[in-house]
Design brief:
single chain; alpha/beta; Rossmann fold; 2 domains; seven-stranded mixed β-sheet; five-stranded mixed β-sheet; 17 helices; 12 strands; about 15% strand; globular; binds NADPH dihydro-nicotinamide-adenine-dinucleotide phosphate
Length: about 450
């Protein structure tokens, strides 16, 4: 058995009840085989055994009181996976599905994603099984304050800087930041995605979605093509999906479908993104509300219950922007059969291992999340740079830096894939390019 397979087998035994983490680790480790053939020195230094083990995992109690005076207890997590190239960086997810396996898979992917950005940021992730849906602002605030009371002990502007993710948007970041400031009596850059009024960066809200479109645009451009006139399907209608849809539309694409966990809307004439913004960002309502924006005579959109069937819609470009494992093998085969040419991931690990293999065995241009959704964390790093230099860059300045970063990520993963003999395989390109930088930093720093 190879070194990689040995480590993977051990990982599967040790983490048998963490399916998402095992899935992410399997995809990443298997693609690193050629790296270890080329670099036997990594094995001698136990790089892989150390790489798959988080530096630190913190699990803590989060008690809070609802509007009726009832006490609730949720579980909080922070996984500080790897700080070889910089302070831990990675979002917080509040969702009822959150558990250690999910936070570890996200933290593990984050190491490589952050490395690909070209910035000095390590990998981490955190969150809670708290579900903000249906909670009042007061309840969300009390939860966030309680969560931060404990997380405070483990983060810092030079050690670990969290951000948002599913269920953690500007409202939650504000409450978390407020509590950290109160406890520390200091106004640090401790959470990115902060409001502009208190040190945030322009474009951070748009960054993941815009970044996804910029890297996809580069992939199109390299093939002599563009977004103009392309039919695009986007899953989700949260932060990533909304701004991906907005930028794709700005570039001339026709976004025909978007979803939430209850179902999807389809409109062959193109979805009106401002309505989705109002429904999701302001009213925090269901996507089916979209139909209410049109009079009977004007209505061309339909709502279909059940979000998974969104991949049955014929499209040129599919952008999964909702959650992990939303595209299974059957959905991947359907996309292929329907002539989809590009699958570019805004979400983290939205494709199962089987679905990924369908894409890799086909002519579909497949950009994995760790490269394609790196625009968010890249702009977070730009936010940190602005905070520490006490400068504020304009929207255009941050946007153009974001675009450059995404184009560079594309070029990097494309070159590395070629260098290792896997042309057009961006899973290989992303994993190898991201890993080598981290491995070299770990080599330089000794066995720690
Ligand atoms: P949000 O919470 O803003 O939105 C998530 C969206 O996905 C919601 O519309 C939600 O609908 C929908 N959704 C959840 N589960 C399903 C499902 N099974 N089928 C269809 N839709 C579903 O999260 P983000 O947009 O921030 O994050 C989306 C993905 O992007 C995640 O994988 C996240 O890790 C990743 N990501 C986010 C970054 C960021 O900067 N925000 C950065 C990099 C990656 P509902 O409201 O019904 O639950």
């Amino acid at each position: 058995m190879s070194y990689v397979q040995d480590v993977l087998e051990d990982l599967k035994k040790k983490n048998a009840n963490e399916p998402e983490f095992v899935q992410a680790a399997t995809e990443i480790l298997e693609s690193l085989e050629p790296v270890f053939e080329k670099h036997p020195e990594y094995k001698k230094m136990g790089i892989l055994e150390r790489f798959v083990e988080p530096e630190r995992v913190v699990i803590f109690r989060v008690p809070w009181v609802d509007d009726n005076g009832k006490v609730h207890v949720n579980r909080g997590y922070r996984v500080q996976f790897n700080s070889a190239i910089g302070p831990y960086k990675g979002g917080l997810r509040f969702d009822k599905s959150v558990n250690l396996s999910i936070i570890k898979f996200l933290g593990f992917e984050q190491i490589l994603k952050n490395s690909l950005t070209g910035m000095s940021i390590g990998g981490g992730k955190g969150g809670s099984d708290f579900n903000p849906k249906g909670k009042s602002d007061g309840e969300v605030m009390r939860f966030c304050q309680s969560f931060m009371n404990e997380l405070y002990n483990y983060i810092g502007p030079d050690s670990d800087v969290p951000a948002g993710d599913i269920g953690v948007g500007s409202r939650e970041v504000g409450y978390l930041f407020g509590q950290y400031s109160r406890l520390s009596n200091e106004h640090h850059c401790i959470l990115t995605g902060s409001g502009i009024e208190y040190g945030g960066s322009l474009v951070r809200t748009e960054a993941t979605g815009y970044g996804l479109i910029y890297i996809t645009e580069e992939a199109l451009k390299q093939r002599g093509d563009s977004f103009k006139g392309k039919k695009v399907v986007i899953s989700g209608s949260g932060n990533v999906a909304i701004y991906a849809a907005e930028k794709a539309t700005m570039l001339g694409a026709n976004v025909v479908a978007m979803s939430d966990s209850s179902g999807y809307i389809y409109d062959e004439n193109g979805i009106q993104i401002p309505f989705i913004k109002e429904i999701k960002e302001i009213n925090r309502a269901r996507i089916s509300e979209y139909l209410n924006y049109f009079s009977k005579n004007d209505l061309t959109a339909e709502f279909v219950e059940g979000s998974n069937n969104i991949w049955n819609i014929k499209c040129d470009i599919a952008l999964p922007c909702a959650t992990q494992n939303e595209i299974n093998e059957d959905a991947a085969k359907t996309l292929l059969k329907n002539g989809t040419k590009y699958v570019c991931e805004g979400a983290n690990m939205p494709s199962t291992l089987e679905a990924t293999n369908v894409f890799l065995d086909s002519d579909i241009v497949y950009l994995p999340g760790k490269a394609a959704n790196a625009g968010g964390v890249s702009t977070s790093a730009l936010e940190m740079a602005q905070r520490s230099s006490k400068l504020h860059w304009s929207f255009e300045e941050v946007d153009s830096k974001l675009k450059n970063i995404m184009v560079n990520i594309y070029k990097n993963i494309d070159n590395v894939a070629r260098e290792y003999g896997f042309e057009d395989n961006y899973v290989m390109g992303s994993n190898i390019a991201g890993f080598i930088k981290v491995a070299n930093a770990m080599m330089a720093q000794g066995i720690i």
